[in-house]
Amino acid sequence: MMLVVVIVLMIVVFMTIVMVCLIVLVIAVVRVVIMVVVVVILVVEMVVMVVVMVGVVMVVVKVVVMVVVTVVVMVEVVLVFVMVVMVEVKEAVEE
Questions:
Q1: How far apart are CA 31 and CA 35, in angstroms?
Q2: From the centroid of its chain, how far is CA 14?
Q3: CA quadruple 85, 91, 93, 95: dihedral positive or negative?
Q4: Which residues cross the membrane (predicted)?
Q5: How far is CA 46 from the centre of its chain?
Q6: What does R_g of the chain's alpha carbons equal in angstroms?
Q7: How many helices (H) and strands (E) in the chain?
Q8: Angstrom distance (rounded) from CA 51 to CA 60
Q9: Which of 31, 33, 38 is nearest to 46 (CA)?
Q10: Which one, of 76, 79, 55, 78, lies nearest residue 63 by Cα?
Q11: pTM for the full model?
Q12: Residue 59: enclosing H or E segment and its boundaries?
């Protein structure tokens, strides 16, 4: 009878140890999963920041292109004015 009680106690102790080990293992796995989630969130933040920076660069490029187009149009207007003045001077000289 004592032998049966000792065997049952050993089985209970062994099962308790196994349960504690399983709980520790689950906690470790949950910590690893949380770390992976944090890393994924950081990567997503970096991607969003890169997209925002690309958007800012695109806006700057648009502004620069608009300024260049405006300068080119102004230069064309000045050139047309100079050509008209030259034609007027040429006609005046011919008369």
A1: 6
A2: 51
A3: negative
A4: 6-29, 36-57, 63-87
A5: 4
A6: 41
A7: 1, 0
A8: 14
A9: 38
A10: 55
A11: 0.51
A12: helix 2-94
Per-residue pLDDT of the chain (95 residues; tens, 9 = 90+): 788 888 999 999 999 999 999 999 999 999 999 999 999 999 999 999 999 999 999 999 999 999 999 999 999 999 999 999 999 888 888 87
Q: For residue 50, what are the CA distances in angstroms to 7, 38, 40, 55?
A: 64, 19, 15, 9
With tokens 């470790």, the residue in question is 28
Tokens of 24: 């520790």
Amino acid identity for residue 82 in this structure: V
Locus of tokens 């099962």: 15
Amino acid at site 20 = V
Give the number of residues written for the chain.
95
